[in-house]
Amino acid sequence: MSLLDPISHALAAVVAATHAGLTALGTDPDSGTTWLLCLAAVVVAVRLVLLPLTVHGVRQAHAGSRARPQLRALRKQYGGRTDPDSLRAHAAARREVSAEHGLSRLGCLPVLLQLPIWLGLYHLLATVADGTSAGAMDGGLVASLGAATLLGVPLAERGYLGAGPAHLAVVAGLAIVAAVLSFVTQRYLVAPNTVTDDLPETVARVQQLMPAVSALGLLVAGGAVPVALLAYWVLNGTWTLGQSAVVRYLFPTPGSPAAHPGG
Q: Which residues form the Membrane insertase YidC/Oxa/ALB C-terminal domain (predicted)?
């Protein structure tokens, strides 16, 4: 039994319930459209579960921006002072500033909590695509996914190379769309809404490269994952783009380029 099984089984229940509902409405249980709608339901369910973490992240970004001038002044005040009393005083002053602005000590924990969900979904789709049942996705649903196609390409298929140019076009097209969505989101929505003034030069450069690195990673992974997961990445990337646009334009981080007119 995998540690990801509880998460995978919860996601499987969402897929199974959506598939049953769509089938009851008269859709073809083995059609690609039905299965794409099931994947869309997973996107909605997962992103709604993660919404409180997203709100927390936005609030922490705003709190960090408000606290930045005071933290910068403390670094300047205690810079070069390494005696125990100064170190304790610096730490105490930082705690006071953090408490004043509501900065969480958990740091990036909300982001880390998302990783098991992403891994659980990959585990589920990879398992089912290989013909093995998982949780509520029994043998019937596994066979149904195995029969489903997207523009003639089986959703359970893997890799860029398959049954001719059409297969390559569909798989590469999905991977490219997912990569473009990721690049546009990070480069034009997330990056302008991030304050990098106090970051070390090396870290700032890494952040600048992240949109391209992330997009390249999706293109590479596209040749190894099931087509169903590629479709999920496109659907999820569309949600992420929309959500990031709302945050950038309606709740910009103070001090970031997005917070300034024309930023």
A: 35-248
